[in-house]
Each structure stands twice: as structure tokens, then as C-alpha cells.
């Protein structure tokens, strides 16, 4: 089969699919010609306290204003909990938790989850947390993470989750930016048999976070941690005596639900802000359509709640749809590299959603660890986070899914709130490596460098021409940055930062970022962040960071470092810099290569020519292009000769 050959829709899937090819076409048609009518028809998938009468009110020009369902009122936690209980599903499992240790797991029903959410919500109110206050969540993959998110939603507080792998500094800057008054953390996290010192990190971060008045500490490993009198509270002591009912706050559809920090091409991470009504409709709509979700099915997304995938496809989407969602604390390779499939069999998982980097790592170990487990419960397989190469796609399809399970390669971003381009299992034939076609209501297009629309089979910058309900509304505290980042490169269009190719069948192939964001093992990283971490080291004068191709991680982090006069390069210093960046940002930013650079290729106006640095890092040194505009072209030769790796 050729790499871009079509894999037909499975008749057995199509016969029972929620959305068939005809239905998809009809939906897309209505969403394009009558968006208000289409979304009025879809908005009933979540529970409203007051039904919206206004549907779409969006403008990508000028100041950029995005409003959906703007006169509606709701509470996200009611859509995820109360209404399932009201319809008699309280005893159904909401969260299956699988611990890092294969011997530990738990099940939480909708009724139990509701009770825990209400207790924490009551406790937070007692601590003085009010509607619109920001609450930082720095937790491992334990049930408390979902409880904390929903408890914030219950009282109208805006959660900002920081991935447990981020350093104290990264945590502190995120808390400071949104002035959180409460931090919810745990004693420790667990990953692959190791412990992550969350409370220790949090204490370090809080030294520079005067806005935080209270800290709630969940017990996970049970290790002794310092508790500051008057500030730190044990979760259980605080919540256990609270009533298991809590009046939900009435929220406007456009009230914020959460902030999630993400890396951009410049400066510090920005607080992507999502609001309540549109996001919830989008989470429910996409989760149901893309995964062809049926009540009663067991659904597992392997992401961490610290990333947007965990927000939309572990918590809000599945719970809005009344699903049983699996939360996994561990890693694919521990205790052995068959762990994913062991968990699939143990919990009889029907829908499985993971990242290409995990697939590539497992593929390296061959079929053995997969074939040791049955996997007969699997029905749909999903991929997210980075482009999936056709080899990995085919391995996932043939080896993991036994050619029985359609693969949904889902393209989206923190900013988009949920999936925008993806096959629907019963409606779209797949091509290995292609995210295929947009969902109904999504209007991608390609433009050239000048913003001119490109037609037909071609490649260019990926833009979205009109709004969809799940779109981010602003950058927290910095609307001008929102407009500048997403709507100024190509005025009137949402610019994704990605490049894409559209083939003769109209299928979309995401080619990767066209800005200075790199994607390391599915984690977004701004090269500027790594550069500023490096130059913060006392011996470093200047640094330039680019992505390089990496067999497992998709992209690796390649750093060019110029030392201060008088400093000598050494292996010890190289190790020190790697450790330094890990400490400054977190282990996900670990440099893969550091090259000593006596000089960097700069234009006469002093701008670093990253194009050349990317080529050298990728070892494509025979296609460096024009270097004649450089202030000093000889630095390039020096860099080529001393390339590392
Ligand atoms: C990349 C993760 C190709 C893309 C949900 C995007 C993908 C960035 C895919 C967003 C995919 C995500 N195929 N590339 N299926 N999914 N990406 O914000 O470059 O962490 O811009 O959101 O990941 O990363 P983020």
C-alpha cells in the first residue's frame, strides 16, 4: 500500500456509525451556510440554566471579538455531573484510575465524583475563593486533579493547571501572571517507579508568589512534607466534613472556564483563555464525533491533565458525554513496555488515544510486547500532538489495532480548545499520515507568505477563516498579544503557526510548525524560552535554539551556545548547562545537543538567521542557501565543521 493510499471506511464501523459520510456532508453544509441554526441544534448536548438565544457573534478583524451563545447561562460541572445523576446514571463509573504501580487502581462513579467535587467546592468557598478568582492546580495524574478542575468550575473559579513536570520557576511565573490566590497540589507524584517532589517544588515556587494565600495538599504517596501553618491545608482534613451538595455558580457562556499556559514563538508562555459555553459544546461535540463514542464504552486518553489534551479529552469532553474515562498515572514503558496493552486488557478499553512519540518508542521494541496482550476490546485508535509519520501510523494500525480499528489522527492546538481536523471513523476514509478532513464547522485554508489564498493541491501556511465555538477568546491579561499573535500575520484570519499540504483529494497533511515553536515528544516548547534559560547562566553570553529531527521525539532541542570571554568549553560545562535548563524549565526542555558557537550567523542588522542554524542542526549542510547577506559568512563554516551529533 502506498503511504498516501486510501484506507476505506470499515463497513462494520460505517453501518453503526453515529456519523456517516452523508451525514457528515450534510452537517458540514449546514454549519457553513447556517452556523446559527447548526449550533443551535448542537448546543443541547450540554446542560443550560438559561438557553442561549444568540448563537454566533464573532469578528476576526480589528480588535477581534469572539462570542458564542453569549446570553446563555450554565455551569460546566453540572453538564459533567449533576445531569447524569439526574438521568439515573449516578452509579455508572465516571473515572477509572490506573496507578503507576500496576497493583493500584480505583473506580469513581458519577455520584461519588459529584460528592467529592461538591466537598472541595464548599471548602474552597470557605477559604474565600470566589467567582473569577484564579486557582492554580499542580497535581499528578490522580483523581483529585479532575475533582479540582470541576470544583473550580462549580464555584466559577478559573483553573490554571501547570504540568507536574515543570520546575518551580515555571510554576512561579505562571502563578504570578494570573495572580492565583489558591494552589492545589500533592505531596508527591509518581512516574515510572520514581517520585516527583511536587510539594517541595511548590514551596520553592511560592517564595515568589505573594498572591497565593492558601495551599491545599492532596495525599498521594503519603510522604512527610512541610506544611506551613495558616497557609497549607490537608485536602482530607479540609473536605471530608463538608456537605456533598454545593450550589453551582450561574456562569455566563462567555465567563472564563480555564487558563492554560502554552509556548509561543516569542517571550514567555501565554495564558490561553477558554470560556464556558462554547468550549463545553466543542468538547462534547468533538469527543462524540471523532471517537464515535457510545454510552457504556471505556475510553482512555493517555495525556496528562497538565496539557490541553487532558483538559478536553480526559475531563470535560468525556464527562460531558457521560463516558467512563480512564486516568493513567504512569508511563508506557514501566514496569515494562507492554503496559499500555496490559491496561487496555485489564479495563477492557474500547477507545484509545495517545501520541505519536509513544507509538514510535513502542514500535522500536517490536511486536512482542503488544502481541502478549489481547487488545480485542479496542475499537478506535487516536493520535494527537505532532505529525504521525506513515510508518508509525501503519504500525499502530496493523500491530496495535490488528487492522480492525480505524485511526483518528487529530490535529488541533491549545488555542483551538478541541479537535479541528480529523477523520470521523464511519465517515472519512483514512490515509496514513494525514489528519484528513476538517470537522463540520471548521474552515481551514492555505495562504502564502503574503496572505494570498492558495487553491487546489498545494502547500502553505495553515489558517482558519472563521470561528468555531471552542476557540480561545484571549490571552489572559493581554488582549493585544492575542490579536498580534494570531490575527496580525494574515489579517482577518486565525493563523495556526503550522504549515500544511492539501492533496488532490482535499486531504490535509500537517507539516509542522512554521514559527519558532518546536514540538518535543508532543510537548510544545518555545525556542525563546530555552534561549532565555541558557543566557541566564553566568557563563553564557548568547544562545540560539532550534529544533532538529529526532527519531523518537519527533523533534529534539539543539542549542548553539556562545560563552562569555574567558570561559572555556568543556564536557563538564555542557552537562552543567543541560542540568541548568532542566532546573530552569523542567525535564521536558532537556537539550539534546549543545554546540559551542564562537559566533552565530547574523544579518548586518544583528538578526540571527535561524534558517541556517536549523539546516546545520538537521545535518542538511549542502543546502544552506544564500549566506551572502551575513555580517560574517565565515561563522557558518565553523559551525558546520563542529556540528554535534
Ligand atoms: C502539533 C496539542 C500534526 C501542531 C493538542 C500544533 C499536530 C501543536 C497534531 C499544538 C497532529 C497537534 N498532526 N501536528 N495530529 N496535533 N499537532 O497546543 O504543530 O500542545 O500546532 O496542542 O501540535 O500543540 P498543543
Summarize the structure.
The protein is an alpha/beta fold. Helices cover 31% and strands 23% of the residues.
Helices and strands, with pairings:
Elements: H1 11-16, H2 21-33, H3 35-42, E1 56-59, E2 65-68, E3 73-74, H4 76-86, E4 93-98, E5 105-109, H5 110-126, E6 134-138, H6 143-155, E7 158-161, H7 168-178, E8 182-186, E9 189-191, E10 194-196, H8 198-206, E11 214-218, E12 232-234, H9 235-239, E13 251-252, E14 256-262, E15 270-275, H10 277-290, E16 298-301, H11 308-320, E17 324-328, H12 339-347, E18 351-354, H13 356-363, H14 368-371, E19 380-384, H15 390-400, E20 407-410, E21 444-447, E22 453-454, E23 458-464, E24 474-475, H16 479-487, E25 494-502, E26 508-513, E27 517-520, E28 523-526, H17 527-535, E29 540-550, E30 554-563, H18 571-584, E31 593-596, H19 610-617, H20 634-641
Parallel strand pairs: 4-17, 6-7, 6-8, 7-14, 8-11, 11-12, 16-17, 16-18, 18-19, 19-20, 30-31
Antiparallel strand pairs: 1-2, 3-13, 4-5, 9-10, 14-15, 15-24, 21-22, 21-23, 23-25, 25-26, 27-28, 29-30
Helix pairs in contact: 2-3, 4-5, 4-6, 4-11, 5-6, 7-8, 10-11, 13-15
The structure holds 5'-O-[(S)-ethoxy(hydroxy)phosphoryl]adenosine.
Defining traits:
645 residues, globular, AMP binding, binds 5'-O-[(S)-ethoxy(hydroxy)phosphoryl]adenosine, GMP Synthetase, Chain A, domain 3, ATP binding, 8-stranded mixed beta sheet, Acetyl-coenzyme A synthetase, Ac_CoA_lig, alpha/beta, Rossmann fold
What report would you give on this structure?
By secondary structure, the protein is of the alpha/beta class. The protein folds into two domains: 11-501, ANL, N-terminal domain (Rossmann fold); 521-642, 2-Layer Sandwich (GMP Synthetase, Chain A, domain 3), CATH 3.30.300.30. Helices cover 31% and strands 23% of the residues. The protein has 20 helices and 31 strands. β1 (56-59) and β2 form a beta hairpin. The longest helix has 17 residues, at 110-126. The radius of gyration is 24 Å and the shape is globular. The protein starts with 10 loop residues before the first helix and ends with a helix. It binds 5'-O-[(S)-ethoxy(hydroxy)phosphoryl]adenosine. Belongs to the ATP-dependent AMP-binding enzyme family.
Amino acid at each position: 500500500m502506498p503511504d498516501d493510499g486510501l484506507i476505506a471506511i470499515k463497513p462494520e464501523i460505517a453501518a453503526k456509525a453515529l456519523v456517516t459520510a452523508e451525514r457528515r456532508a450534510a452537517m458540514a453544509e449546514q454549519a457553513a451556510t447556517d452556523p446559527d441554526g447548526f449550533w443551535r441544534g448542537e448546543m443541547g448536548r450540554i446542560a443550560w440554566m438559561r438557553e442561549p438565544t444568540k448563537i454566533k457573534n464573532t469578528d476576526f478583524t480589528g480588535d477581534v471579538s469572539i462570542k458564542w451563545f453569549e446570553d446563555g447561562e450554565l455551569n460546566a460541572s453540572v453538564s459533567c455531573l449533576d445531569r447524569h445523576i439526574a438521568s439515573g446514571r449516578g452509579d455508572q463509573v465516571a473515572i477509572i484510575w490506573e496507578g503507576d504501580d500496576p497493583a493500584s487502581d480505583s473506580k469513581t462513579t458519577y455520584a461519588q465524583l459529584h460528592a467529592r467535587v461538591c466537598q472541595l467546592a464548599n471548602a474552597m468557598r470557605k477559604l474565600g475563593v470566589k467567582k473569577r478568582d484564579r486557582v492554580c492546580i499542580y497535581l499528578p495524574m490522580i483523581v483529585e486533579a479532575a475533582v479540582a478542575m470541576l470544583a473550580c468550575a462549580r464555584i466559577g473559579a478559573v483553573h490554571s493547571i501547570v504540568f507536574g513536570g515543570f520546575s518551580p520557576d515555571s510554576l512561579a511565573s505562571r502563578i504570578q501572571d494570573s495572580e492565583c490566590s489558591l494552589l492545589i497540589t500533592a505531596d508527591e507524584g509518581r512516574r515510572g517507579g520514581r517520585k516527583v517532589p511536587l510539594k517541595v517544588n511548590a514551596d520553592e515556587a511560592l517564595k515568589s508568589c505573594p498572591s497565593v494565600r492558601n495551599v491545599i495538599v492532596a495525599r498521594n504517596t503519603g510522604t512527610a512534607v512541610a506544611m506551613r501553618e495558616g497557609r497549607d491545608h490537608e485536602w482530607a482534613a479540609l473536605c471530608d466534613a463538608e456537605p456533598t451538595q454545593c450550589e453551582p455558580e450561574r456562569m455566563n457562556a462567555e465567563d472564563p472556564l480555564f487558563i492554560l499556559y502554552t509556548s509561543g514563538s516569542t517571550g514567555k508562555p501565554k495564558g490561553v483563555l477558554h470560556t464556558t459555553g462554547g468550549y463545553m459544546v466543542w468538547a462534547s461535540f468533538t469527543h462524540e464525533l471523532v471517537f464515535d463514542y457510545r454510552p457504556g464504552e471505556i475510553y482512555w486518553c493517555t495525556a496528562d491533565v497538565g496539557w490541553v489534551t487532558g483538559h478536553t479529552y480526559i475531563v470535560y469532553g468525556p464527562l460531558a458525554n457521560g463516558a467512563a474515562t480512564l486516568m493513567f498515572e504512569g508511563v508506557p514503558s514501566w514496569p515494562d513496555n507492554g503496559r499500555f496493552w496490559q491496561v487496555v486488557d485489564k479495563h477492557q478499553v474500547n477507545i484509545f488515544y495517545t501520541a505519536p512519540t509513544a507509538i514510535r518508542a513502542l514500535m522500536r521494541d517490536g511486536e512482542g510486547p503488544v502481541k502478549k496482550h489481547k487488545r480485542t476490546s479496542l475499537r478506535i485508535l487516536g493520535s494527537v500532538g505532532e505529525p504521525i509519520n506513515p510508518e508509525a501510523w501503519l504500525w499502530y494500525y496493523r500491530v496495535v489495532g490488528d487492522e480492525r480499528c480505524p485511526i483518528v489522527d487529530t490535529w488541533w492546538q491549545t488555542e483551538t480548545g478541541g479537535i479541528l481536523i480529523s477523520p470521523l471513523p464511519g465517515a472519512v476514509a483514512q490515509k496514513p499520515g494525514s489528519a484528513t478532513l476538517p470537522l463540520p464547522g471548521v474552515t481551514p485554508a492555505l495562504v502564502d507568505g503574503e496572505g494570498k489564498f492558495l487553491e487546489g493541491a498545494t502547500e502553505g501556511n495553515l489558517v482558519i477563516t472563521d470561528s468555531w465555538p471552542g476557540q480561545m477568546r484571549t490571552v489572559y491579561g493581554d488582549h493585544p498579544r492575542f490579536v498580534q499573535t494570531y490575527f496580525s500575520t494574515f489579517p482577518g484570519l486565525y493563523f495556526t503557526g503550522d504549515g500544511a499540504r492539501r492533496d488532490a483529494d482535499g486531504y490535509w497533511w500537517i507539516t509542522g510548525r512554521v514559527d519558532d515553536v518546536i514540538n518535543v515528544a508532543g510537548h510544545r516548547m518555545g525556542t525563546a524560552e530555552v534561549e532565555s534559560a541558557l543566557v541566564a547562566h553566568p557563563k553564557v553570553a548568547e544562545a540560539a535554539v532550534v529544533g532538529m529531527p529526532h527519531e523518537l521525539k519527533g523533534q529534539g532541542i539543539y542549542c548553539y551556545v556562545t560563552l562569555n570571554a574567558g570561559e572555556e568549553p568543556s564536557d563538564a560545562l555542557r552537562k552543567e548547562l543541560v542540568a541548568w535548563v532542566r532546573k530552569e524549565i523542567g525535564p521536558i526542555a532537556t537539550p539534546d545537543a549543545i554546540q559551542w558557537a564562537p559566533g552565530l550567523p547574523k544579518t548586518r542588522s544583528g538578526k540571527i538567521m535561524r534558517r541556517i542554524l536549523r539546516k546545520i542542526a538537521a545535518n542538511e549542510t549542502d543546502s544552506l542557501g544564500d549566506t551572502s547577506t551575513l555580517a560574517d559568512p565565515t561563522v557558518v563554516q565553523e559551525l558546520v565543521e563542529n556540528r554535534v551529533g
